[in-house]
Amino acid sequence: MPARTRMLIAHRASTAARADLVAWLEGGRLRALAPHRELWQLAEYRAVFDGSPAEGTADADG
Q: Residue 58 and residue 60: Cα distance in Å, rounded?
């Protein structure tokens, strides 16, 4: 099967953590494009998910 690209909108950190790459949108603009693991280091990004750690992703915060 050929490689495919899927785009989804995540409201849960655990969903974002499973993505290869996260496009963080804010105010209709691209704020960052990086893996969830890298974005998770930013307090403002974590606040998008109400500060909740990513479920099932023990290494998502470090």
A: 6
The half-sphere exposure of 19 on its side-chain side, counting CA atoms within 13 A, is 24
Q: State pTM to two decimals.
A: 0.70
Backbone angles phi, psi at 33, to 5 degrees: -135, 110
- Give the Cα separation of 2 and 54 in Å (integer): 30
Beta carbons of 22 and 62 less than 8 angstroms apart: no
| Distance from chain centroid for Cα 34 | 8
Average pLDDT over residues 26-42: 95
